[in-house]
Write a structure and sequence with these properties.
The chain is an alpha+beta fold and 708 residues long. β5, α22 and β6 form a beta-alpha-beta unit. It has 27 helices and 19 strands. It has a five-stranded mixed sheet with strand order 6-5-7-9-8, sandwiched between helices. Strands 10-13-18-15-16 form a five-stranded antiparallel sheet, covered by helices on one side. The protein has a five-stranded antiparallel sheet with strand order 11-12-19-14-17, with no helix packed on it.
């Protein structure tokens, strides 16, 4: 083994050792717990299994209907197949640190490889001198791998925590520009594809980085960005101009075409379903200016230590961090005091060309991360920032958290930090001090973990009939909903009304789950409503209606996550399901399982759409009221196998109303009249439309559903 390989192996081993130390106690719990907090790690582990169960090569090439796309697990599917969950997730978490450090080491070593070593290094022996010469790039890697930004997104943002591909993509870009061989073209396309699949926000930042790079070198082509290796052309010599760039493009047209084909085929096509979704009239992907402002970086977040730093993080949070907008993950941007101080006092020692370029990159992405309005300790000032010009544009309007542009600020600072060390590092003690300071500033022990052992109830559920499961509180608690999603890999049933992937579900499917009577009260639990046995719309009793609703959905069990509910909520659910419906609960660890049993009912129920307004009960008049602005509808469900006759009864309190079904008028009613609408229901569901015949809204009173 030659010296080059030994050096890289030693560097990798050191990064592994540092990662194991800084992320304790993950390694000792790698197969029983998952790193992170909240629901996102559960969703990612579910996605590993779900993607494999539904593996389809067309997905990689943009197949399927218009939808939100998340293929961040695909590059790591091999780990899932080898180790399963949660070990595979934890290994990706650990590798994100190791590879981030190593790829930053490679980038800084490439950029600084022609920088003359300080004369002081030559006073030491050969071995120590070589170690000191590697230290700048190594320490730059340590800085980048443990940036609090990285640690914050490691709490659960599977794609955003993978910061490793960015420095590797930049390195390969520089190498490709110097000498665009076939293998370098393939390598660059591969890394950009990995970045595209892992985190599409970073792909956008990488594209902006390329634009900045091109503009910077078209405007100022007089120097080199980096000295070339022997046999390679410099990125830009003094004589290179815009015309020289044109000649370079013409001379390397084959590699440019090959790169374009590879990027379109592998990096871009998987996002085609989301592009088609964005092209639709709906605003599914446009998140709005309010979210962009909320999840923008604070001006002082880059110098505020994170909350989890065990020595001074709590104090920093109480004084500053708690005032930042958004959540703690998106608000974390701390760059460390040591790197910033070195940049302030020793920036003049960085090569002029490098200094201007990397400071320009850092400044541009710093401005992007601040979003459309300036935040100062959580105060959103009215003055617009440059990003306000981009926020409403396609692609940019779908950026969930513009603060994530801070990852490129951290990358730029790491490169400049490496440059300063390459020119100023002279003593072994300086290496030890710098390493100790970085690790102390960025310390995040212990890493939060969540146990991944699932309740035995899910094995029981898997043996029950039916295709669906009602899990409470999967419609109101994001973490519980995400864990429920992961548990569906065991019981193989659809979780009704699960909010964990609400944005990925068809709106109609989720809207129906929220509208079904009795079930709605159970999913979106308001304890007093169940305790009062409050009737549903059109005087439907929930005790009679719930079994019919569950029969329609083919639900055979209700799982109650007792650990995620208050004592009052648990008592209310047990009273309703056990005392009123007669379904005894069986406890399995933290889950109480109620098996749905057949119960005599009329087989008919009714739900309302979202156009009804001010539906409520007036205790003074002891009447239920509902308003119809222009149109509103109800859906009648017949879960029997034969036709059934029902009657909709109501009084018109105000206005005039027309009732129709499938475009056929059924009845009209006017203020002061009682209306009866007989309907013959076939098995399945039918919509009945209520329309106000006057410009003003109509009001109905005491609506009832009567089954004959």
């Amino acid at each position: 083994m030659n010296a080059l390989w030994r050096r890289h192996i030693v560097v990798l081993i050191l990064y592994v050792v540092l990662t194991v130390f800084m992320t304790m106690p993950i390694v000792s719990n790698i197969s029983t717990h998952v790193a992170g907090l909240g629901g996102d790690p559960w969703q990612t582990m579910w996605r590993f299994g779900d993607e494999w169960d539904n593996a389809n090569i067309l997905e990689i090439f943009g197949g399927g209907e218009p939808r939100l796309v998340n293929i961040s697990v695909w590059p790591w599917m091999w780990l899932h197949l080898m180790f399963g969950q949660p070990a595979a997730y934890n290994l990706v978490y650990l590798l994100s640190f190791v590879l981030s450090g190593y790829f930053m080491y490679l980038l800084v070593r490439f950029l600084t490889r022609r920088v003359p070593e300080p004369d002081a290094l030559h006073r030491y022996g050969g071995g120590l001198s070589r170690i000191l010469s590697e230290a700048p790039a190594f320490l730059a890697g340590v800085l980048y791998m443990f940036l609090p930004y990285h640690v914050a997104h490691g709490m659960g943002h599977f794609g955003a925590m993978q910061t490793q591909w960015l420095p590797l993509a930049v390195l390969l870009l520089f190498m490709w520009i110097q000498r665009p061989t076939v293998w370098r073209t393939i390598g660059l396309a591969l890394v950009v594809t990995l970045q595209s699949w892992s985190e599409h926000h970073y792909l956008l930042w990488l594209a902006i980085f390329v634009v900045v790079f091109a503009i910077f070198h078209l405007i100022r082509p007089e120097d080199e960005l980096a000295s070339p290796s022997q046999g390679e052309a410099p990125l830009l010599r003094k004589e290179r101009s815009a015309e020289r760039w044109v000649r370079w493009i013409r001379g390397n047209s084959r590699q440019i075409v090959l790169l374009s084909i590879l990027l379109i085929t592998f990096a871009a096509l998987p996002w085609w379903p989301m592009v088609r979704l964005a092209a639709q009239p709906s605003d599914t992907l446009s998140l709005g200016i309010e979210q962009t402002i909320r999840f923008s970086a604070d001006l002082f977040s880059f110098v505020t230590p994170p909350q989890w730093q065990p020595i001074w993080g709590g104090i920093a949070y109480e004084l500053f961090g708690k005032h930042f907008t958004g959540n703690i993950v998106e608000a974390t941007q701390f760059l460390g005091f040591l790197p910033l101080l070195l940049l302030i006092f020793f920036r003049q020692h960085v090569l002029r060309r490098e200094k201007k370029f990397w400071f320009a990159v850092a400044a541009i992405f710093f401005l992007i991360s601040l979003g459309p309005r300036l935040h100062v300790f959580g105060n959103v000032l009215p003055m617009p920032l440059p990003y306000a010009l981009l926020d409403s544009l396609p692609v940019f309007s779908a950026v969930r958290a513009v603060a994530r542009a801070g990852v490129v600020v951290g990358l730029s600072v790491s490169v400049l930090f490496g440059w300063i060390l390459a020119t100023q590092l002279k003593r072994p003690i300086s290496v030890a001090v710098a390493l100790a300071v970085i690790l102390t500033e960025f310390l995040f022990l212990p890493v939060p973990l969540q146990a991944t052992k699932l309740s035995g109830a899910y094995e029981i559920i898997s043996s029950l009939p039916g295709k669906a499961l009602v899990e409470i509180p999967a419609a109101t608690n994001y973490t519980a909903a995400s864990e429920s999603l992961y548990a569906s890999r065991v019981h193989k049933k659809e979780v009704v009304g699960n909010i964990a992937l609400e944005r990925a579900l068809e709106k109609e499917v989720f809207a129906e789950a929220k509208s079904l009577p009795a079930l709605r009260q159970l999913l979106f639990l308001r304890t007093a409503h169940i305790l009062e046995n409050r009737p549903e719309f059109f005087a439907q009793g929930i005790v009679e209606t719930l079994p019919d609703t569950l029969r329609y959905l083919d639900v055979s069990a209700i799982a109650v996550r007792a650990d995620s509910l208050s004592a009052e909520q648990r008592q209310a659910i047990d009273y309703f399901l056990h005392e009123q419906l007669g379904w005894p609960g069986e406890k399995y660890e933290d889950v109480v399982l109620y098996k749905v049993q057949p119960r005599a009912g009329d087989g008919v129920f009714l739900s309302r759409d979202g156009r009804w307004e001010n539906v409520g009960f007036d205790p003074k008049r002891e009447s239920t009221f509902a308003e119809i602005p222009r149109q509103a509808a109800v859906t009648l469900y017949n879960v029997r196998e034969t036709n059934v006759t029902v009657t909709l009864e109501f009084d018109v309190e105000q206005g005039a109303i027309s009732v129709s079904m499938a475009g056929t008028p059924l009845r009209q009613g006017y203020a002061g009249q009682g209306v009866r609408v007989p309907i013959v229901l076939e098995p399945g569901k039918q919509e009945v439309v209520f329309e106000s015949l006057l410009p003003d809204k109509a009001i109905i009173r005491n609506p009832k559903l009567v089954v004959q």
